[in-house]
């Protein structure tokens, strides 16, 4: 586990506070409030991974809290399980339900996802209140067994220590997870799902994982409540509890400290307002609106900005080390030149009456720069989307590096060496330039979930190696001095180059570039020619879509021309340029003249 100096001091202070609080505070009510802060923190810390980092808003986590609470209750009160074991089983059972709720959530997003999670919460609430034989309804389950030490059940002070220890463990592990490749992948899924897939991050896996993490911590929170009260009934499980958990996360902010700030403030407020339930609901609603409109990065974000203003040293960015060597592909990833790399046969895609890809046969050769040109709407981007797995073709075959990639998901296609950029930029714009490139390296990082969660040395070593390689790639593309900046704040031309850097980080054998010169000024376009040639010299095959004919003619070894979804010509740039069908397609006439072709094409 990696500790910065400031963080280590913070953790030490938190441990001291948790150790001392039950000694200094003896009043039962205050001890209960401390316990609840810990419980709410635990639930919110996991929910923050789902909501704050992966961008999946859930309004049904009271249901997962209930799964944990009732699992612990039934296992101890009815089946006589050891209470410690039942506590662990409660987390595991909630994790299983997390998978269950994640599956429909993979198909929907935004408000529809909120509806799915609300539905889940309501179903659980109904089950525990109506199925009285098992869950006891409003009468509830008595005799839930609390964990014990040396034969006696935990007392109020020990409960605070126990939940405090769990909170520290949750903080350290979730922080370790979010600071590495898992955290970047969650954020990538949050910002641009298609881009995340195209650089090798499985959106499916990371959404399910985020649901499971949030479910486990919410389930453990439920078990703590049931075991501490030694009782649970259906009144605990209601829609307000789901709102309360979500509010802690949104109000606290998505930083790792957000759930702590949110849990402390809102638990205290909850305890203070307990006497006025109507004021409670009104206050939560008002706070939720306030958090959404006035503090998009929550109270922790606002406090962080204030702290940086007051103590300028906190705002100073760390000095990144220089990359150790120049970047080049690993020898194993270089392919022999002039061999077939990608072949399509009769690839066909129709949208109703529009056929943007009409029986395309195409062959790309290793080490070459191929260009795909054609008038607007000819079907170039659709073909690129088919090759990269974003759009499934209706029929036809595609072989890449000896494997069929038809119906393969984009992250798998990326993993076997097909990288891409997008016509409309799809950067992870809130992340740093360096982190954008590191997301591209995701597939090449081998440390597993538990190594990252526990911050084991292999995960840390790999993280340092990834940083070094990302810096090498940025250096290769002249972006090294921007490594620390937020991607979305770069000038447009540099953002295009960053997307290229991120694609290179996936170690592609074939790189698909969709209009890389769009929006660039003449000097930037000229520089891009040099960059693409440098990429080819690394041994990477390129397929380029471009409207700038100067660029296409200057660097292509082979040009394919599409019109209305059909391949109308291919060959060396000079041959294609003089092909009458190509000239006619660009000008929409039968008697074009070549100067007109240049003009039309470069204005495309
Ligand atoms: N998802 C879709 N649904 C319906 N029609 C689509 C869809 N995607 C593409 N098309 C249609 O397919 C045709 C080809 O579009 P595509 O974007 O592939 O062309 P393009 O050659 O890349 O054009 P441009 O040079 O303007 O980017 C267009 O008529 C477009 O409207």
TrEMBL record:
GO terms for molecular function: ATP binding; ATP hydrolysis activity; L-isoleucine transmembrane transporter activity; L-phenylalanine transmembrane transporter activity; L-valine transmembrane transporter activity. It comes from the Bacteria. Residues 342-589 form the ABC transporter domain. The keyword ATP-binding applies. CDD domains: ABC_Mj1267_LivG_branched, TM_PBP1_LivM_like. Its main location: membrane. GO terms for biological process: D-alanine transmembrane transport; L-alanine transport; L-isoleucine import across plasma membrane; L-valine import across plasma membrane. It is found in: Cell membrane. The chain crosses the membrane at residues 6-26, 33-53, 59-77, 84-106, 159-178, 208-226, 232-251, 282-307. GO terms for cellular component: plasma membrane. It is a multi-pass membrane protein. Keywords: ATP-binding, Cell membrane, Membrane, Nucleotide-binding, Transmembrane, Transmembrane helix, Transport. PANTHER family: AMINO ACID ABC TRANSPORTER ATP-BINDING PROTEIN, CONSERVED COMPONENT OF ABC TRANSPORTER FOR NATURAL AMINO ACIDS-RELATED. This is Amino acid/amide ABC transporter membrane protein 2 (HAAT family) /amino acid/amide ABC transporter ATP-binding protein 1 (HAAT family). It comes from Pseudorhodoferax soli.
């Amino acid at each position: 586990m990696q500790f910065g100096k400031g963080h280590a001091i913070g953790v030490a202070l938190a441990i001291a506070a948790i150790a001392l609080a039950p000694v200094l505070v003896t009043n039962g009510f205050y001890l209960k409030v401390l316990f609840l802060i810990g419980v709410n923190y635990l639930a919110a810390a996991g929910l923050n991974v789902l909501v704050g980092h992966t961008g999946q808003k859930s309004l049904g986590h009271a249901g997962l809290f209930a799964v944990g609470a009732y699992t612990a209750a039934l296992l101890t009160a009815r089946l006589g399980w050891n209470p410690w074991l039942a506590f662990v089983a409660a987390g595991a059972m909630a994790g299983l339900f997390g998978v269950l709720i994640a599956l429909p959530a993979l198909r929907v997003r935004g408000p529809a996802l909120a509806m799915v999670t609300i539905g889940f919460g309501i179903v659980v609430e109904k089950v525990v209140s109506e199925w009285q034989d098992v869950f006891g309804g409003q009468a509830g389950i008595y005799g839930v067994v609390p964990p014990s030490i040396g034969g006696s059940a935990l007392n109020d002070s020990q409960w605070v220590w126990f939940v405090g220890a769990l909170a520290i463990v949750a903080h350290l592990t979730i922080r370790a997870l979010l600071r590495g490749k898992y955290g970047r992948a969650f954020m990538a899924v949050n910002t641009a799902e298609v881009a995340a897939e195209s650089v090798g991050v499985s959106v499916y896996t990371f959404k399910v994982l985020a649901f499971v993490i949030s479910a486990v911590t919410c389930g453990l929170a439920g078990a703590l409540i049931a075991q501490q009260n030694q009782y649970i009934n259906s009144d605990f499980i209601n829609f307000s509890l789901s709102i309360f958990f979500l509010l802690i996360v949104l109000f606290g902010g998505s930083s790792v400290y957000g759930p702590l700030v949110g849990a402390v403030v809102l638990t205290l407020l909850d305890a203070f307002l307990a006497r006025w339930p109507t004021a409670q609901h009104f206050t939560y609603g008002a706070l939720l609106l306030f958090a959404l409109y006035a503090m998009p990065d929550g109270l922790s974000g606002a406090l962080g900005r204030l702290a940086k203003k007051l103590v300028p040293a906190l705002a100073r960015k760390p000095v990144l080390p220089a990359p150790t060597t120049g970047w080049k592909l690993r020898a194993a990833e270089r392919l022999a030149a002039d061999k077939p790399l990608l072949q399509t046969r009769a690839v066909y895609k129709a949208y109703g009456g529009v056929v943007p890809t009409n029986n395309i046969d195409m062959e790309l050769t290793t080490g070459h720069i191929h260009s795909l040109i054609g008038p607007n709407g000819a079907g170039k981007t659709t073909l690129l989307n088919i090759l990269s797995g974003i759009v499934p073709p209706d029929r036809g075959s595609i072989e890449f590096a000896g494997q069929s990639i038809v119906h393969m998901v984009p992250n798998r296609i990326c993993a076997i060496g097909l990288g891409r950029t997008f016509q409309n930029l799809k950067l992870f714009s809130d992340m740093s330039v360096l982190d954008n490139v590191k997301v591209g390296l995701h597939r090449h990082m081998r440390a597993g979930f538990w190594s990252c969660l526990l911050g084991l040395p292999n995960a840390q070593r790999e993280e340092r190696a990834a940083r070094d390689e990302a810096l090498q790639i940025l250096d290769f593309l002249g972006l090294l001095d921007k490594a620390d900046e937020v991607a979305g704040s770069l000038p447009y031309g540099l953002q295009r180059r960053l997307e290229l850097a991120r694609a290179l980080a996936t170690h592609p054998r074939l790189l698909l570039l969709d209009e890389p010169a769009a929006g660039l000024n003449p000097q930037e376009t000229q520089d891009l020619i040099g960059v693409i040639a440098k990429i080819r010299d690394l041994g990477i095959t390129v397929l380029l879509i471009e409207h700038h004919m100067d660029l296409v003619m200057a660097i292509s070894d082979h040009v394919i021309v599409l019109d209305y979804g059909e391949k109308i010509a291919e060959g060396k740039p000079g041959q294609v340029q003089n092909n009458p069908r190509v000239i006619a397609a660009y000008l929409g006439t039968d008697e074009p003249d070549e100067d007109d072709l240049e003009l039309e094409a470069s204005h495309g």
